[in-house]
Amino acid sequence: MTSAILVSIFMTLVAASTPILLAALGELVTEKAGVLNLGVEGMMLCGAVAGFAVAFSTGSTTLGLVAAVVAGIATAMVFAVLTLSLTANQVATGLALTIFGIGASSLIGAGFVGRTITRLGPVFPAALSDHPLLRAVFGHDIVVYLSLALVLGVSLFLRKTRPGLILRAVGEHDASAHAIGYPVIAIRYAAIGFGGALAGLGGAYFSLALTPMWADRLTAGRGWIALALVVFAAWRPGRLLLGAYLFGAVMTLELQAKAAGVTWLAPELLAMAPYLATVAVLTMMSLGRRTGRLDAPACLGKPFSAS
Residue 113: helix, strand or coil by DSSP? Predict the structure, then answer.
């Protein structure tokens, strides 16, 4: 296997991992604040269709990314109002948000099916981004570098800053945090909004970078993988990065096997691999709960009332 092939595999792996990493990182912050949002898939789809629609209409992928972030936040705020202000059940609302996202993206995207746009390009000059070896480092688009910077930023925020400590306190013991004067509801609104922004951005990565065209249900269940990844990473950003790239490697397996002419293994079986990995993670999660080894925030999924 030549170095060019290895670099090509690495580039594909990074691209496949980035949307999952973004969505999972946003969900990690949301869950650290004590809120379980199962609507990641719906928020990703809303971001994907909003990003594509704006990019197609304006010819600007930058505006498309901005629109995706706004769409993700707007969708997340619907969830926040229902669960935080109206105390609706978080699990049921999250599932409803996913169903809403699937329907809304299909409706809005109906006029864009099969349309294409200019793919989000590399940040660095062609001398670096097209170099046979250096492109492994310099050949990525801005969202890839942003996702890595966000992992570092979130990790430092949660471990080294006072606002991060307060957010964790809200997720671990909301009643005590409220008793000493911290605005629990406002903090959870901010965490949900951050999660929605990253889910929208992750969804837009599908329609603006990975496959710069629109197709119905473009994210293909990656939001569920992102949810499982948060548990797999034990709510730690560093592990989340490793887990996302592991899932990305599994997802590139199908493409690389086809390129290599592998015929003894059914392509359908390879396509199932990421989802089988998700099932394995969920199984680990249930075992962890039984043995008490998980580090889930103590207030995760529990309603809170300031009165």
Answer: strand
Asked if residue 94 lies in contact with residue 35, where contact means CB atoms within 8 angstroms, the answer is: no
Compute and round to an integer the Cα radius of gyration of the chain.
19
Say whether 79 sits in a helix, a strand or coil.
Answer: helix
Q: Which phi and psi (to 5°) does residue 115 adopt?
A: -75, 150
The pLDDT, as a whole number, for residue 278 is 66
Q: Which residues of the chain have pLDDT under 70?
A: 1, 254-256, 258-265, 267, 274, 278, 281-294, 307
Q: 218-253 burial, b for 16+ CB within 10 Å, e for fewer?
A: bbeebbbbbbbbbbbbebbbeebbebbbebbbbbbb
Eight-class DSSP state of 81: I
Q: Look up tokens 């991992």; give the residue.
A: 17
Q: How far apart are CA 74 and CA 208, in angstroms?
A: 20
| Backbone torsions φ then ψ of 52, nearest 5 degrees | -70, -40
3-state secondary structure of 228: helix
Torsion 41-283-154-148 (CA) sign: negative
Cβ atoms < 10 Å from Cβ of 276: 11
Sign of CA dihedral 230, 232, 235, 236: negative
| Secondary structure of residue 301 in the 3-state scheme | coil
Q: What is the pLDDT of residue 231?
A: 86
Q: Which of 149, 142, 144, 154 is nearest to 27 (CA)?
A: 154
Transcribe 39-78 into DSSP letters. Answer: -HHHHHHHHHHHHHHHHHHHS-HHHHHHHHHHHHHHHHHH
3-state secondary structure (DSSP) of residue 141: strand
**118 DSSP assignment:** P
Supply 27's token pair. 């969900």
Q: Which uninterrupted H or E stretch holds 188?
A: helix 184-205
CA atoms lying within 13 Å on the CB side of residue 73: 12
